[in-house]
Amino acid sequence: MDSFLEKVAKDILSGKYGEPGEIAVVLPTRRAGLYLKKSLGIAAGKLVLSPTIFSIEDLIRELYPGRIIDSTEAIFLLYAVQLERKKEETEPFDEFCKWAQ
Fold first, then answer.
1. What is the radius of gyration, based on Cα positions, of the chain?
2. FRET partner for 39 with CA separation of 20 to 30 A, picked from 29, 32, 60, 94?
3. Is the pTM of this model over 0.70?
4. What is the DSSP string of 65-96?
């Protein structure tokens, strides 16, 4: 039984979406992109031009013109918003960090 990425590789190579080098694929992670490239190579059995492969994070960085904050900064901003909204109910920062991710 083929894995999901093996099925995607075969679908890409079928040509129904155009030439592999002319399409883009968005996957959840960069690691999934590496596995897709491996599956493409095995399915093709020869050298082929790979599609452009983005992780969701890479696609957002490509399309969004603003600054993207890192997760640490996001936690501090989220805590500041919670402090502003729920002053009496806000838990200590160390407790907040356990579930904020």
1. 21
2. 60
3. no
4. -SPPPPHHHHHHHHHHHHHHH-TTTPPPHHHH
